[in-house]
Amino acid sequence: MANHQKTSRMQSNHRNRKKKQRIILCILIPLFSVALFAAVYIAHLFATVENEIDASYVEIDRPEPVEEVNPIDQPVSFLFLGIDNDEDRQLGSTRADSIIYATLNPHTHEMNMLSIPRDTYVPIMRNGSVVRWDRINAAYAVGEESVMVQTIEEWLDVPVHYYATFNFNAFLEIIDELGGIEMEVPVTITEMNSNDESGAIYLEEGIQNLDGEQALALARTRKLDDDVARGHRQQMIIEAIIQKALGFQSVPKYTAMAETVGSNMRTNMRLRDMSAVAQTGLNQSFTIESHVFEWTSFMERDMDLVRIIPDSFTTIQSALQNSLTQTETNNSSRYTEETNDSNTSSSSYNSEEASNSTDSVD
C-alpha cells in the first residue's frame, strides 16, 4: 500500500513538473519568438535606414572644417533648409523657402530654434569673401548648401555642425507616415495644395490633427501674417514633428520614414550622428525655445528687404552662442564678451552698406 502511494505521488509530481514545464514553455516560446522577430525587425530597420541615409549624404565645401562633436554629450547645431523644388517642378534656380537654425544641448536639456526671414539682407559669403549683399535665401542659388552654411556662420557667428535640406515631398510624406500632427490653426483659411491648385486646402480655426498637405498649407500661407510670423509657424510645425517622431509609437514607422527621407533630403549627417541625436531626445525631456527677430522693412534696388533690429540680433545671437557652450556647471558663454562689439556692428545693415553692395540676381 505504501509503495502504491509512493508511486502515485511520484506520478503526480511528474505530471505537475510536466504541467509547469508546459506553462513555462507557453510563456517562453512567445517571448523568444517576439525577441527573434524584434531582432530581425531591428536588423532590417537598421539596414534600411543606413542605406537610405547613405543615399542622402552630401558633404559640403568649407574654407575650414567645423569641429566634430558627439551629440550625446556635446552641444550641437543644425541648419534646416526647405526648398520648393523637385524633379517634377523643375523650377530652375532654387532659393531656400524656409531657413531654420537650431541648437541642441544635452546638458541643459534645451533646444533653441531660430527662423530666419528669407528676405533678410545679408552679405552672401563664399570661401571667406563677400559675393554680394542680397536676400539670405539667395545664398542657396549662389552655391547651394555650401554657400548657405558659410553665410549663416559668418552672419550669426555660430558654427553649423550639420545641415539638412528637405523638399516639400519629404515634409508631406513624413507627416503622413507619422499619422499627422496636432496643431492649432489660428484662423480659418483656404490655401493651395502642393500641386499649386488654388483653394484645394480648407482649414478651420482651432486645434486639430493635420495631415501632410494641411500642415504644408499652414506652413506656407501668407494670408495670416508676415514672413517672420510665418517662420515661427514653421518652427511650431517642426516641433510637433519632432515630438511625434520621438514617441515610441512611431518606431515601427521609421523604415518608411527613412525611405522618404533618403529620396527627399540632402544632409551631412551619417546614421551614427542621427542615432546619437535620437538617443539624446529619447533619453531626456527637452524644452524647445523659439526665437523670432524684430525687424523693419526697406526697399533697395527695387527689392522688398528685411533689416534685423540690432538689439534683437545681439540678444538672439548671444542666446544661440550660449546654448552651444553651456554645461551643467557652466551657464555662461565663452563667446559673449569676445564678440559683443562685433555682433552689434555686423547686425546693422543700413542704407550706406546697402548702397555699397553690388547688384543681385532677382
TrEMBL record:
<dbReference type="InterPro" id="IPR004474">
    <property type="entry name" value="LytR_CpsA_psr"/>
</dbReference>
<keyword id="KW-0472">Membrane</keyword>
<keyword id="KW-1133">Transmembrane helix</keyword>
<dbReference type="Pfam" id="PF03816">
    <property type="entry name" value="LytR_cpsA_psr"/>
</dbReference>
<feature type="region of interest" description="Disordered">
    <location>
        <begin position="323"/>
        <end position="362"/>
    </location>
</feature>
<feature type="compositionally biased region" description="Low complexity">
    <location>
        <begin position="341"/>
        <end position="362"/>
    </location>
</feature>
<keyword id="KW-0812">Transmembrane</keyword>
<comment type="similarity">
    <text>Belongs to the LytR/CpsA/Psr (LCP) family.</text>
</comment>
<feature type="transmembrane region" description="Helical">
    <location>
        <begin position="23"/>
        <end position="47"/>
    </location>
</feature>
<feature type="compositionally biased region" description="Polar residues">
    <location>
        <begin position="323"/>
        <end position="334"/>
    </location>
</feature>
<feature type="domain" description="Cell envelope-related transcriptional attenuator">
    <location>
        <begin position="95"/>
        <end position="245"/>
    </location>
</feature>
<protein>
    <submittedName>
        <fullName>LCP family protein required for cell wall assembly</fullName>
    </submittedName>
</protein>
<dbReference type="InterPro" id="IPR050922">
    <property type="entry name" value="LytR/CpsA/Psr_CW_biosynth"/>
</dbReference>
